[in-house]
Design brief:
The complex is a heterodimer of chains A (330) and B (249). In chain A, 74% of the residues lie in helices and 1% in strands. By secondary structure, chain A is an all-alpha fold. A two-stranded antiparallel sheet of chain A has the order 1-2. The radius of gyration of chain A is 21 Å and the shape is globular. Chain B is an alpha/beta fold and 249 residues long. Classes of the chains: A mainly alpha (330), B alpha/beta (249). Chains A and B meet through helix 6, helix 7 and helix 13 of A and helix 2, helix 3 and helix 5 of B.
């Protein structure tokens, strides 16, 4: 992560990808919007995974963001896409702030199963809640942007594409800066040996909590985008298979690269779309084979393709004579 | 002279096993104290209690007059006690400099930064300065998993030194180091620690190391202190020879 792209170059890249949407076919716009939204939540999972913990229940924050935005949109009439994204992020983040400190003391499978259990508790509550539409959920209106309404479907799709790509892009830039930061390095240290981290005077639980809240913020914003894209919300947002899809993207990407998350999310959406088109009854099988292939040949995810190459280039091929001598004698 | 560490009536049991039995010990500033004893004598339990990893069943542990017996390892580290481990506890996928950078971050009073690069110049300089003290500058940018056991041991000790601790606890600093290199390694450790003038307590099984580097030896046996004094006297003590050294000097 040390020698990645400069943030200014990344901003330029985000702008270019956003403008590229102008020439993309309409069906690709909605696919890219979903991919960007999924990438955002998967990026949160990657941020958390750098502490050695995987959340199998990000649907909890995804649903919190989605329902929070939907309720505020219907009650107060807030339809602005940027405002909705911020509301979703705040809802997810607040829930993360409540749960994070409690869950940070667990690790490994216990951490993963607790997050899954909490998301299913929310799912159960939403299904039973008639005020929130029960298992059918409810609809919301079309989003606007800075007071502008978009009645042309193509323009509406592009607006949503642009907002989701820009948001996810900036989240990616923020994650890149985070990964290279003091906190980012401490996160990797927690993943490898949290007891030693404590002996160095750093709170491993605090590091995990901060990463957890960041992941919850990303998940909440992602939930808002999913809501804007579908204009409908239901308890499926919190269901375990929804969370599983996000983990799927994170596993495909690996934890070493931010760019890999976007590539993995887009690859997943493309594989899903085309396999659904050409193999409508067995598209899940194709997805499974795709994931198995990545795990088999790239166990550290798609990101390891270029991170490994970069590390090979940066690292000396053999120890320097002094280092080799020192190691031989010690 | 007022002791840096003062332990009184420390007890610790694991079921029927007595790991610490009314241990009392004072350690004066700048002393180099060696803890010796057979496996299971209670040396590491003592270190674990002093560093907050284990809580004593009873008794008190004071650092510069402050009770630290119930504090966590993190708080104990912040108060001025650092330790290294018998098996180096490092972040093996990170480079040696990154390991030190994490330690430098932990030693700062401020919260961890979200945006300041992990190896910002100040932190990297400090990391390299410490690695240089141990003669490890040339391995700074190599991942720990590529380094030999002896080098890892030195990186582990360097990390413990980042905080400029009042008390440095070294758990078997020469274990895993070849017989030919053990003195060179220990010389390097003592030389590296010298600028911070820390008080050192080291657990050691090698009596040659003990005799050469310690100015005080505490012999443990079944959770009790069998003998405590200068190396010459303790290593000649008949009970120490019988239960600890087995006649070795």
């Amino acid at each position: 992560m040390k020698q990645g792209l400069h943030p200014l170059l990344m901003i330029a890249l985000v702008a270019a990808v956003t403008l590229f949407g102008r020439v993309l076919p309409t069906w690709t716009l909605s696919l890219a919007t979903v991919a960007a939204s999924n990438a955002l939540i998967a990026l949160g999972i990657v941020v958390l995974a750098r502490t050695g913990n995987v959340s199998f229940g990000q649907g909890l924050f995804f649903a919190a963001g989605g329902y929070g935005v939907a309720l505020i949109a219907n009650v107060w009439g807030v339809t602005d896409a940027v405002a909705q994204m911020i509301i979703g992020a705040v809802c997810g983040g607040l829930l993360g702030l409540v749960i994070g400190p409690l869950i940070a003391r667990y690790s490994g499978i216990f951490f993963g199963m607790l997050t899954l259990a909490l998301s299913m508790v929310l799912y159960g509550a939403l299904v039973k809640s008639t005020a929130l539409g029960g298992s059918d959920g409810f609809n919301v209106g079309r989003p606007s942007l800075f007071g502008m309404s978009f009645n042309d479907p193509r323009e509406a799709d592009f607006m949503l594409y642009a907002v989701s790509v820009i948001t996810t892009g900036f989240a990616g830039i923020a994650a890149t800066i985070l990964f290279r930061s003091e906190l980012g390095l401490a996160s990797l240290a927690v993943r490898e040996n949290n007891l030693r981290v404590e002996y160095l005077g750093i709170s491993a639980n605090l590091v995990i909590t901060i990463n957890f809240v960041i992941a919850a913020i990303f998940a909440g914003a992602s939930g808002a985008f999913a809501l804007m894209a579908q204009r409908h919300i239901d308890p499926q947002f919190a269901y375990w298979t929804t969370s599983g899809e996000f983990v799927f993207v994170a596993v495909l990407a690996g934890y070493q690269s931010v760019a890999a998350v976007f590539v993995a999310s887009m690859a997943l959406e493309l594989v899903r779309s085309f396999s659904n088109l050409y193999l409508p009854n067995t598209w899940q099988l194709v997805l499974g084979v795709f994931l198995l292939g990545v795990i088999l040949f790239l166990p550290r995810g798609i990101g390891s393709l270029w991170i490994r190459e970069r590390q090979k280039r940066m690292r000396p091929t053999a120890a320097t004579p002094i280092a080799a001598q020192k190691e031989a004698t010690l | 002279m007022k002791p840096v560490l003062s332990v009184r009536g420390l007890d610790k049991r694991f079921g029927a096993v007595v790991a610490a039995d009314a241990l009392s010990i004072d350690i004066a500033p700048s002393q180099k104290v060696s803890l010796i004893g057979a496996n299971g004598a209670g040396k590491t339990t003592f270190v674990n209690m002093v560093t907050g990893y284990l809580k004593p069943d009873s008794g008190s542990i004071e650092l510069d007059g402050m009770d630290i017996g119930r504090r966590s390892p993190r708080h104990v580290a912040r108060l001025g006690i650092s330790r290294s481990f018998q098996i180096p506890q490092l972040f093996i996928e990170l480079t040696a400099a990154e390991n030190l950078a994490v330690a430098v971050s932990g030693a700062r009073a401020q919260a961890l930064s979200f945006h300041s690069p992990a190896e910002a110049q100040g932190r990297r300089d400090k990391a390299l300065e410490l690695l240089a003290r141990f003669g490890l500058t040339d391995v700074a940018d190599r991942p720990i998993l590529e380094l030999a056991g002896g080098v890892r041991k030195l990186v582990d000790i360097a990390m413990a030194l980042v905080r400029r601790p009042k008390l440095l606890l070294l758990d078997e600093p020469t274990s895993g180091v070849s017989a030919e290199e053990k003195f060179a390694t220990m010389d390097r450790v003592i030389h590296a620690v010298a600028p911070d003038a820390a008080t050192i307590v080291f657990v050691e099984h090698d009596m040659e190391i003990v005799g050469r580097y310690a100015d005080r030896v505490v012999a443990f046996y079944q959770g009790r202190i069998l003998a405590d004094g200068n190396p010459h006297d303790v290593l000649k003590d008949p009970e120490v020879r019988r239960y600890v050294t087995g006649g070795a000097q």
